Amino acid sequence: MRTLSEMLRWVWAAQPSRALVLPEAPPHKVLLRSERATRGSLGWRLRFDRPAPHKLDIALTLFVLAGAALLGAQCGGRLDGVTQEAIRAGDWVARSLGLGMAVVTVSGATHMSEARILAIAGIDASRSLPFFDVAQAKARLEANPLVKQASVRKLYPNQVVIDIVERTPYAIWQKAGDVSAIAADGASIDEVVDGRYADLPFVVGEGANEHVSEYVQLLDALDELKPRVEAGVLVGQRRWNLRLKSGVDVKLPEDNPQAAIGELLILQRQSRILDKDALAFDFRVPGRVFIRLTEDAAAAWAQAHPAKKGAQP
User: Fold this and answer.
1) pLDDT digits (tens, 9 = 90+) for 14-53
2) How far apart, in Å, are the Cα atoms of 268 and each of 65, 230, 255, 262, 277?
3) Architecture of domain 171-303
């Protein structure tokens, strides 16, 4: 007969020692190719599970309200006005998300100021990139007579790049008190309000813009006298008067004005005729020059050349 203690020892020995054996760790799972490919994007998916930022909540709310307003306006016939309000609201949301127009780069502009270009393109601090129409901005810029070609690009998150190709100003044209810069074909391309075009040829009169190339050829024929010329005045859309910086007028003939300029050059080189006290030199009659003297010069000439007795007045 076994004692109780012996019986307990026998039962303990018959049972496996579970308290001393640790459970075996499960084997590592081997990820399949598709699982490995999607593992890297898990973090991005998890981020969307988080609560949306406060600004995004505002943006979504405004877009929902704007959509409802547009639907109501379309039904009520006030779509255009509400559309503009929605765009302004959208600009505000986009700017709050960092999509405003923080940097604007303008290149190619010589005669147009950056402020003028931005105003024409419709760019200011209230606008944003998502709601900025580059096609409309390009059309507005190219509608300006001074702009030959324009390119407008958006670079996210907050940049706009504008490239301008200007038409080349050829001369300045004055008509009835209005002064404008014109291209070589005579088309008016810009208003003259400062000294940007001061070095260009200056023509005056009706139709002078259409004959500006003729005047430029006359200027080139003047050689050393060219710096003395202030403007070319087209008379009757037929012939030119040269207005000198001294205020003297040189009247050229309608036919073959280059010959008259050649004669003027000879007289100036030989006798300094343009340095005389005169108001005008008339070359309209071939081979002859008529000089209109100033009052003082005319009086001095009359005193030096008294009329002969018996001469007819």
Assistant:
1) 444 444 444 454 544 444 444 444 444 433 333 433 444 4
2) 81, 18, 22, 10, 14
3) 3-Layer(aba) Sandwich (3.40)
